[in-house]
Design a protein that fits this description.
Largest sheet: none
CATH class of the largest domain: Mainly Alpha
CATH superfamily of the largest domain: IL-4 antagonist (De novo design) like domain
Helix content: over 70%
Order of helices and strands: HHHHHH
Radius of gyration: 16 Å
Number of domains: 2
Number of strands: 0
């Protein structure tokens, strides 16, 4: 899984910085910095997507492993979102995500799911 991710990142990096990709990357970066609201591709949106994806896996085989992966990604995006724009709901969401990850490590999927749902509620409350 990590190899595929690494390859994807390298390929996207090459595409971004070749030819017109440099101009597009600069324009995209400026748009993100100048926009005070969250965009569809923002870290906040990605954190929400990862939690929703984790919750959709409930009841399937290897749910705990999937939950761990998605919640770890969600936490990383929530932390990045917090650096972009501080919000008390982000703090609460990060607290719930950390609790959920601890529960997943302890093999308590039900408690982790409950904490993930709370984190999702907080992330959706961010404006």
């Amino acid at each position: 899984m990590r190899r595929k991710l690494a390859v994807a990142v390298l390929v996207l990096g090459m595409i971004t910085f070749v030819g017109r990709g440099v101009f597009w990357a600069e324009k995209s970066a400026l748009a993100q910095v100048s926009s005070p609201t969250f965009t569809k591709g923002s870290h906040l949106a990605q954190a929400i997507e990862h939690i929703e994806a984790a919750l959709k896996e409930q009841g399937k085989p290897k749910y705990e492993a999937s939950l761990n992966v998605h919640l770890t990604e969600a936490r990383q995006h929530a932390e990045a979102s917090k650096k972009e724009k501080a919000n008390p709901h982000l703090d609460a969401a990060l607290k719930e995500l950390n609790a959920a990850l601890v529960d997943v490590e302890a093999k308590h999927a039900d408690t982790a799911t409950k904490a993930a749902k709370e984190a999702l509620t907080h992330l959706k409350a961010v404006k």
